[in-house]
Amino acid sequence: MSKSLVEISSKDQFDETLKSSKIVVADFYPEEFPPYEQIAPLYQTLAESLSGPNVVTFTKVNSDNNTALTREYGVTALPTFLLFRDAKVTWKTQGADPAELKKLVQALAAEVDSLGESSGGGGSAGGVWKGAEIPRGYADISDQVEIRNCELLNADEDAGPVKVLFNEFMPSALDKSKAGAKDKDWVQSGTDDQLLLFVPFQGSVKLHTLQITSLPTDGQDAIMRPEVIRLYINRTQNMDFAEADETRPTQEITFEPEDWNKNGTANVSLRYVKFQRTTTLVIYVQRSTEGAEAVRVDRLRFIGEAGTKREMGKLQKVGEDE
């Protein structure tokens, strides 16, 4: 088992873990349950990425071997994931569903941020990262993106795939521990300094803010930040560059140097009334700063409200009848 995962063998051990770590994530798991076996590697990856000594500890609790803990925390379905803050449960979710684990990560990020580990301009703790503060009253709804159906035009194939834009972890350009990593976790343009990104959502959402992170490079082959972007909503498919140039956008944004914070992130306030029922979004990077030959984007976050509230299912083992 990964060193980042603590296998719990007794109630005393678990109680001690709750005392020694500010935040604890517990995975109450079943034995020999195929759906869980498919999601277990994802949980391990999260533990390796997000654990921090005495701050965030990931644990695994075999429900068959720890019946006292299972009863104490009201676990009646497997798997169940619990998030503890100061030994108290602050989040509970169940099911071998990657989307539910993603919600857990978001809840974990909120807990870590509230510890004061990150600065007002965004930061990281235990690997959890955000580029900028989320406007009060709204939430990060990036999990509403249908990543598999996103399309990026004029992308440099030597950079990362489109899915890296929605990576929840700190960009490698800011993470010293990942210096020299072979996998590139950003996208950049190919033949010129333009990009066209088609983003479909799982349903209708209300968009309030777009957070875009761009970490330029210096030197002879400098890759720069966007200077002008255009947004188009509710297109049935991606546009081409000529169409994007000729079509009036829902909103156009021109960035100034002071718009980017120390994390390389800009908060773009959207004309909220125009983005109340957004099902798709086209982001057109029309040009980069300083006339560079290429433009780079490291992360995207969508802040607003999801149109449909997803209710928690009944607590039962996924794949089994009640």
Strand fraction equals 25-35%
Structural class: alpha+beta
Distance between the termini: 32 Å
Mean pLDDT across all residues, rounded?
Answer: 86
Order of helices and strands: EHEHEHEEHEEEEEEEHEEEEE
Total DSSP helices: 5
What's the count of strands? 17
- Major sheet: size, sense and barrel closure? 8 strands, antiparallel
Large-scale geometry:
elongated
Helix content: 10-25%
Contiguous low-pLDDT stretches (5 residues minimum) are 117-128, 309-319
Radius of gyration: 21 Å
Question: How would you characterize this protein structure?
Answer:
This protein is of the alpha+beta class and 322 residues long. The protein is built from five helices and 17 strands. Strands 8, 9, 11, 12, 13, 14, 15 and 17 form an eight-stranded antiparallel beta sheet that branches. The protein has a five-stranded mixed beta sheet with strand order 1-3-2-4-5, with helices on both faces. Strand 4 and strand 5 form a beta hairpin. The longest helix is centred in the first third of the chain and has 17 residues, at 34-50. The model is unreliable at 117-128 and 309-319 (pLDDT under 50).
